[in-house]
Give the backbone structure.
Amino acid sequence: MNIMTEAAAEAALEKKMNTVPLKMVGKDVSVYYGEKRALFDVNLDVRENTVTALIGPSGCGKSTFLRTLNRMNDTIGGCRITGTITLDGEDIYDPSIDVVELRARVGMVFQKPNPFPKSIYENVAYGPRIHGLARNKADLDVLVEQSLQRAGLWNEVKDRLHESGTGLSGGQQQRLCIARAVAVSPEVILMDEPCSALDPIATAKVEELIYELRSNFTIVIVTHSMQQAARVSQRTAMFHLGNLVEENDTDKMFTNPDDQRTQDYIMGRFG
Amino acid sequence: MNEMIKPASGGLVPTAPTRRDIGIRRRYAAERRFRFYGLAAIAFGLAFLFILLWSVVSKGYTAFQQTEITLPIEFSEKVIDPGNKRATDPNVLVTANYPLLMRNALAEKLGVSATDRPALKQISAMVSDSARVTLRDMVAADPSIIGKTVPVTVLASANVDSAFKGQIDLSVAETNRKVSDQQIGWMNQLAEQGVLAKGFNTGLFVNGNSSRPEAAGLGVALVGSLYLMGIVLVLSLPIGVAASIYLEEFAPKNRLTDLIEVNINNLAAVPSIVYGLLGLAVFINFAALPRSAPLVGGLVLTLMTLPTIIIATRAALRAVPPSIRAAALGLGASQMQTIFHHVLPLAMPGILTGTIIGLAHALGETAPLLLIGMVAFVANVPATPLEPSTALPVQIYMWANEAERAFSERTSGAIMVLLAFLIIMNLGAIMLRRRFERRW
């Protein structure tokens, strides 16, 4: 009886997860850097309003995959991509898609905090300004405040909005970068090891933030920390040597993975 | 004692204690030696810099003062216009014997008889020929001055100037020097009376070139150099920055762009005289632009400065961290927006420094200007960049070729002016760099 209900609950959960609409779908995605092949026919779905964690040892292709989602790989010379990636059913590599518009819909937060060497206000206002999201100064002020609040930074910086963004601490800088990404109201936010340069306290704040942002945004996060993946994500994908090894609900992934390599990696036997 | 205990405490440890001080004294000695070499090299460089500056300044500082004679002069109608024909023939006022006015006034002051011809001749030689122009201009400006006695300041001749500054060796036999004992005596007499004195040499900055050293100035050269710098800045900065941005940010990396890069680096090392030949062939012979004009000089110096600016700008662009580019692109900025909103402002200090160093280089450039005819004798300040002109370094070159003692003083003075401009420009570069300090 007990076992039955547990199984039923699990099935229900799985069903629930499976009914979450797909935001981005990668199909047979392969990436080549010149002659070198970095990704091998990866099929990975990103679900709406879900945090998807990409894990795996260094050089496994998880960052490469992340960067294909907003075509940041376009800026690397000699990079070639095959397969299709769709955003709401549209192929983002279709020639009719404008890459500038795509990146406004799929924002990105980088490994190292990289605020512009401008004021905190200007950092957040830059995106809305170039995309024409605010009609006047008052609108822009509101948008900046909202974005900083969403990034949990407002209370810390509201009195010094016009001081340089590079003068903040590392954790504050990273939250500023998140506020900057949030300000253009993207649908998806990509995060490339956003906490790797932060201390544990700043990391905790950013993780908390990611957890909250989930209700409004679809988030894909690359991380080296198993605990972080377990804490913030609902879905986890494990990469190894350019292949997608396993994609599963995070709970299942960390308790009872389907693939032996995932088990080994999580247990710290390699990587 | 130690050796007795050690083996007992650990079996695997070698019996002799590990020596870590092998060669340590030699290492320190090598370091001291190297520091000494470095200091010696710096001292060597400083010594030569000091010698250079000392030789220039010690010879040149007197050029900023000029000996002047101030005394009342009677604009006698008998001398200027004996026939009283100036109403019908204005040429009379131009050709009048003005030096005579000066001579008579000086002779009177010194108590020399109007019939003592050899003495009068010596008196004439004490006043600069430029006095003729000074007096003529006064009469031309106000003809009613004729018949009146007015105090006038004129330049002393170059020889008296040199003698008054103590640059003429009086122990040399009188026949072997350019000022006679008689003239020296008069000079001292006039100086005691306050008629002859040293004043600040404004003529050095205002006058055009002259064959009389006391009247020669850098006015034309300064204006010419200013035109040159203006043209070089206006042309080479936008062209150089545009070329660098395209090459660095947009151009595909292929054989053609590699070739262009190699060529730019090579052009930066091409001797400047070759650019002069190019300017002569293209701008003067082919495009038929006027010779000796700052416009042509500016074009030639632009070509010469461009590689320097392009190399400096590309280095500055490359030094902007890729994370800034990624941040802007990741927000959906176009490549153009990324460059103009983020990359270029951060690269600005480097670009400006490179530009100013390129300009300073161009300011001191002589060889290409010689070939396009900017080495001419120009007495009138050019009103436009199409009129003949010279430039500071060319003027120095020309004066250095002159034989008179007074020209050598002016050569050093002109070098000091040029060095002052270079120092100002380099200070400007440093200040701009501080102002736009890298802030990431």
About this structure: Chain B is about 65% helix and 5% strand. The first strand of chain B starts at residue 65 and ends at 74. Chain B has two domains: 66-199, 219-435.
